[in-house]
Write a structure and sequence with these properties.
Length: 444
């Protein structure tokens, strides 16, 4: 008889994983703690509950990375996308979803599947045998989180994300900015030039502080505590503590010489650090923030060199339980320390409903394949799912790992030799290449 696959958490990821595995003929036991045990964000006992916005973001599969992820999930006959499309609300190019009927229909389909049984219980400890997928999300219950920590090590599981904005390298003006690590530290040329520096004069710094203080901020959610503040103060809170605080903190100008104007001493310097092995993404060091998205874009574009910056993602600070996946997971999403356990969804360090469901889709298929005696490699990195899984299981810098949305900066670059296509054409080239590669992967 075929072994059962146990999946913990019937959120976006766990629901999709259960569907995929069952459709491949593997019996699934789905463990969900709600409604017995709640979280601060969920309201119901339904599966795949959308805890905040009702948007699956852009549905443009030709020129948008999340739209491409929709396409791939539809191509793989994903339940979450099928139900989201069935309960679509008018929202222009975005896929907005009627959240309650959506969650009810996902729940009904899973409960009706002959190979899926549901257990309403909280898993308190990481199991040592059997086949498991842990998809307990950003609000993983505290006992399970403690158990994961005990197995993987205290540094391996975070309880908050503190995301600094991430900029596409190609959009940084390198006639203003320059590459240099502070005090030229590093053994290799690569390390000595690991940072991109943006210099500010006194007037630019003062204007920047004024804009930071005036910017609109997001309130903290209920259930988000301020305890984590010690480690990662939002930049605007630092500015509130004193106008010079940032100049003595993340914006200190010491140990750096402007490569374009060596005689000029900058009043402050904003540093960006490489965020992925491809070198296509840079994060602004120490710039985690609770500013609203619109405010972030205008404030950060005041930084010399970032006037035309494109952002792969904007900053934020949230309650979020997630693993240091680049060190802990193999490319099949298995915990290296216990390969009978896979992780999926937001707890692996992706961010968003769609990304979480996509990682559930892959984990469900990979686990089912393994139970059936087959090996399923991840989709190639040219696809949206492949780019995400490659990023979380090794492409991202492990030391600074923070949750990531899907974006074209995660894909192997197209036109690396300096082609002059317009950005829209280039995105179309990314999605064309991805669709061909994903179709091939599915067929194999
Ligand atoms: C407050 C908040 C607001 C958010 N807003 C948005 C947004 O607007 N847009 C967006 O795209 N993303 C948003 N996110 C992120 C969002 O949670 C994820 O994108 C998505 O829901 C994650 O999917 P998941 O399957 O990984 O986790 P979830 O959907 O959270 O599913 C995890 C499931 O595991 C269950 N569970 C937890 N621990 C256990 C246990 N020990 N035993 C059994 N079951 C357990 C939970 O009850 C839950 O049903 C938000 C997150 C939070 C916390």
């Amino acid at each position: 008889m075929t072994r059962s696959l146990h999946i913990v958490g019937a959120g976006m990821a766990g629901s999709e994983a259960a569907w995929q595995a069952a459709e491949m003929g593997v019996p699934v036991v789905l463990h969900e703690m709600r409604p017995r045990v709640g979280t601060f964000a969920h309201r119901t006992g339904q599966f795949a509950e959308m805890v905040c916005s009702n948007s699956f973001r852009s549905d443009d599969d030709e020129r948008n990375a999340v739209g491409l992820l929709h396409w791939e999930m539809r191509a793989a006959r994903g339940l979450i996308m099928e139900m989201a499309s069935a309960h679509r609300l008018p929202a222009g190019g975005a896929l907005a979803v009627d959240r309650d009927p959506f969650a009810e229909s996902v729940t009904a389909r899973l409960r009706a599947h002959p190979l899926i049984s549901v257990v309403e219980e909280e898993l308190a400890e990481l199991p040592s045998d059997g086949d498991w997928i842990i998809a307990t999300g950003p609000l993983t219950s505290s006992s399970l989180a403690e158990s994961i920590r005990a197995v993987t090590g205290a540094q391996s599981l975070a309880f908050f994300d503190a995301i600094a904005p991430i900029v596409y390298a190609e959009s940084i003006d390198m006639s203003v900015a320059w590459r240099q690590s502070r005090y030229d530290k590093g053994e290799t040329e690569d390390e000595r030039t690991a940072y991109i520096n943006c210099p500010m004069t006194r007037d630019q710094y003062e204007a920047f502080i004024d804009a930071l203080l005036a910017a609109e901020k997001t309130e903290f959610h209920e259930g988000e505590t301020a305890g984590y503040f010690d480690g990662c103060l939002p930049i605007e809170v630092m500015a509130e503590r004193g106008r010079e605080t940032l100049r003595h903190g993340p914006m200190k100008p010491v140990g750096l010489t402007n490569a374009h104007k060596p005689q000029d001493k900058a009043h402050a310097v904003v540093q960006l650090r490489r965020d992925n092995k491809l070198g296509t993404l840079y994060n602004i060091v120490g710039f985690q923030t609770k500013m609203k998205y619109g405010a972030q874009t205008s404030v950060f574009r005041m930084i010399p060199g970032l006037e035309n910056a494109s952002f792969a993602r904007l900053g934020g600070i949230h309650r979020n339980t997630f693993l240091n996946s680049p060190t802990l997971l193999d490319d099949r999403m298995r915990l290296k320390l216990r390969r009978n356990i896979r992780f999926a969804g937001q707890v692996t360090g992706v961010e968003g409903y769609v990304e979480s469901a996509a990682m559930g889709l892959l984990a469900g298929r990979m686990a089912a394949a393994e139970i059936l005696g087959r090996d399923l490699p991840p989709p190639p990195p040219e696809t949206a799912m492949g780019a995400l899984i490659t990023h979380i299981t090794g492409g991202a810098e492990a030391k600074t790992f923070q949750p990531m949305n899907v974006n074209f900066g995660l894909f192997p670059p197209i036109d690396a030799k300096g082609g002059r296509r317009g950005r829209k054409d280039r995105y179309k080239a990314y999605t064309d290449r991805a669709k061909a590669a994903f179709t091939e992967w599915l067929a194999a």
